[in-house]
Write a structure and sequence with these properties.
CATH superfamily: Dehydroquinase, class II
Low-confidence stretches: 1-8
Mean pLDDT: 94
Bound molecules: 1,3,4-trihydroxy-5-OXO-cyclohexanecarboxylic acid
Largest sheet: 5 strands, parallel
Distance between the termini: 28 Å
Structural class: alpha/beta
CATH class: Alpha Beta
Number of helices: 5
Shape: globular
Pfam families: DHquinase_II
GO molecular function: 3-dehydroquinate dehydratase activity
Organism: Bifidobacterium subtile
Helix content: 25-40%
Oligomer: single chain
Function: Catalyzes a trans-dehydration via an enolate intermediate.
Keywords: Amino-acid biosynthesis, Aromatic amino acid biosynthesis, Lyase
CATH architecture: 3-Layer(aba) Sandwich
Number of strands: 5
Length: 156
């Protein structure tokens, strides 16, 4: 009979990036830094490895696709790290989908590279924060590491 060593199996986590984050490196480098999404992906995968997590980094400019990823996370019991980007500030659809994740007891950590509260007025409000497990802002790419550490701690 085949046996599975679940203790040794890395836990699958998705890191979901919203609109325009595929343009990291060229988009406002003074705000988001000069490294691109591929660099962020490599960092997240490496940090995941250190934490015993199998990290899968995704990016979409499409609200419906991101909502679908939340539905699948619920069905497959996958913890989520999410930078909702501009959807943070107005997508009730994504907020409801994120709520479904945390409502089932799965962690969903919200991350922002910049500190949106210190920027334009429209960035001061998040429709994701009230349904997220926690929020990390203003730490650059390192915020993703902090979010992954939080997930690793929460699923221990
Ligand atoms: C962002 C902040 C948002 O206000 C903005 O729309 C983004 C990126 C961040 O990572 O700092 O696209 O989520």
């Amino acid at each position: 009979m085949e046996t599975i060593n679940t203790a040794a199996a890395a836990r699958h986590i998705i890191v979901v990036n919203g609109p325009n984050l595929g343009r990291l490196g060229v988009r406002e480098p003074d705000v988001y830094g000069s490294d691109d999404l591929a660099a962020l992906t490599r960092l997240c995968e490496g940090w995941g490895g250190e934490l015993g997590l199998h990290v899968e980094v995704r990016q979409s400019d499409d609200e419906a696709e991101m909502i679908g990823w939340m539905h699948r996370a619920v069905d497959e019991r996958t913890p989520v790290v999410m930078n909702p980007a501009a959807f943070t500030h107005y997508s009730y659809g994504l907020s409801d989908a994120a709520h479904m994740v945390t409502d089932t007891g799965l962690p969903l950590m919200e991350v922002h590279i910049s500190n949106p509260s210190a920027r334009d007025a429209f960035r001061k409000h998040s429709v994701i924060s009230p349904v997220a497990t926690g929020t990390i802002t203003g730490m650059g790419f390192y915020g993703y590491r902090l979010a992954l550490e939080a997930v690793a701690h929460l699923i221990e």
